[in-house]
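Researcher: Sequence recovery benchmark, item below. Answer with residues only.
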């Protein structure tokens, strides 16, 4: 674990790199190598994800399930994700108890590396015109990938840093995530617009950066394991906490509040995403497709959806990068944890107000871009820093559970919101926004409770009670 630096043992190159990186955050020369390795790992992971993510929307846009609308298919796909993850969680917890840290990370990542191309070969227009329900299956799969692989990575990072170092260095590592997301969006746009590749071809190229990230993650774990062995630490000691993930979460008020914070964040964001998706599909439906065959119309809808989302992801990630590089660490330094916990809900309030004032695709796009950029930078850094003081056994079990189940349970409730508002209540878009406004108020209350609990924990630590 990275603790106090030993500057006199650092190389000249590390000292120079540390001075160069000081524009982003305070970093000691002894921390440079590991931090840049983690920076590169998350960069490659997010590159892979944002090459595959736009395909998720386009595949759903051409999926047909009974008389369900595109929005209802998207919402129900999110609900199905939560069901699948509930079933997977006990299996993952058992893996954690059985496998060393490095093998656990390797097995999970390699599963996704292998399955990416499988979805490519069953995509529409390749082996079959459009295999029923596979688009929903891909939506579920990539949703699990996005939360499980990234949650594991940040648990690994929190395992390597102590609380003080993590607060300084997590904002810098997260810049790698923002850069990777931008590169993934750029590559997708280039391959579709310039190289004229089919949008599903992204599924063939996306596992390449993920495989590189997995190799580097394995290499870093070996290095850190060797350091721990040299220092006499036993990484194969019995788990500190044999309880299940759910018992750990419900038995610790601080962890439970983290779960509620992440749950509220994702419920609010997913509601907004569903509104935007509906607006995009309505806009595409109004385009002139006269003269096109049904098959050509399907391809047109998928391509337009992929291009829209790859572009909006680029701007979300570009703004997120600027915030991550120049705002997050300063918010944390001068505003403390309160600064990065309370800014995201305030921005969401403003975004919801803008969407309510002008109900059109341009306003929705601008509002969601601002909200998502803030959440991808400020909120994501906050949610990872919150885990720094949590014990190791609870870290891997509880964090993976919270970052997967709470995220996808929020998707399930967002799905319920959509179904209840479209099928039973016939509510308007403004009614959706009012629901989000109420949820944001609850989100702010949860953030304030976390701050109070964190102050209590820090006071007990100073008094030697923990």
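Model:
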């Amino acid at each position: 674990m990275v603790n106090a630096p030993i500057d006199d043992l650092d190389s000249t190159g590390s000292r120079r790199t540390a001075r160069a990186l000081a524009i982003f955050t305070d970093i000691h020369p002894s921390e440079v190598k590991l931090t840049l390795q983690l920076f590169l790992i998350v960069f490659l992971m997010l590159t892979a994800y944002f090459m595959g993510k736009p395909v998720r929307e386009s595949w759903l846009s051409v999926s047909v399930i009974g008389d369900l609308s595109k929005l209802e298919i998207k919402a129900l796909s999110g609900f199905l994700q939560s069901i699948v993850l509930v079933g997977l969680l006990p299996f993952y917890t058992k893996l954690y108890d059985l496998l060393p840290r490095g093998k656990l990370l390797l097995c999970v990542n390699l599963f996704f590396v292998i399955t990416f191309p499988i979805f490519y070969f069953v995509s529409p227009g390749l082996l079959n015109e459009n295999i029923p329900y596979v688009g929903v299956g891909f939506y579920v799969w990539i949703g699990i990938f996005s939360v499980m692989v990234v949650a594991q990575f940040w648990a690994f990072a929190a395992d390597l840093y102590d609380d003080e170092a993590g607060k300084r260095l997590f904002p810098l590592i997260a810049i790698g995530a923002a850069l990777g997301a931008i590169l993934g969006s750029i590559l997708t746009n280039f391959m579709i617009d310039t190289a004229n590749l089919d949008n599903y071809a992204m599924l063939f190229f996306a596992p390449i950066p993920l495989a590189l990230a997995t190799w580097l993650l394995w290499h870093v774990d070996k290095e850190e394991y060797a350091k721990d062995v040299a220092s006499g630490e036993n990484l194969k000691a019995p788990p500190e906490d044999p309880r299940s993930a759910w018992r750990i979460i419900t038995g610790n008020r601080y962890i439970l509040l983290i779960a509620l914070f992440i749950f509220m964040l994702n419920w609010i964001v997913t509601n907004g995403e569903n509104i935007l998706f509906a607006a995009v599909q309505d806009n595409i439906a109004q385009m002139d497709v006269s003269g096109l065959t049904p098959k050509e119309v399907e391809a047109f809808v998928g391509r337009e959806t992929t291009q829209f989302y790859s572009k909006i992801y680029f701007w979300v990630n570009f703004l997120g990068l600027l915030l991550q590089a120049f705002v997050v660490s300063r918010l944390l330094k001068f505003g403390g944890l309160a600064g990065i916990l309370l800014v995201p809900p305030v921005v969401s309030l403003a975004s919801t107000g803008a969407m309510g004032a002008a109900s059109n695709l341009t306003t929705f796009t601008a509002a969601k871009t601002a909200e998502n950029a803030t959440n991808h930078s400020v909120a994501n850094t906050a949610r990872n820093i919150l885990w720094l003081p949590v014990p190791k056994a609870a870290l891997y079990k509880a964090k993976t559970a919270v970052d997967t189940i709470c995220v996808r349970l929020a998707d399930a409730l967002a799905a319920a919101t959509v179904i209840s508002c479209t099928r039973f209540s016939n509510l308007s878009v403004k009614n959706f926004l009012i629901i989000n406004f109420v949820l944001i108020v609850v989100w702010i209350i949860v953030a304030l409770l976390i701050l109070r609990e964190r102050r209590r924990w820090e006071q007990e630590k100073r008094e030697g009670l923990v």
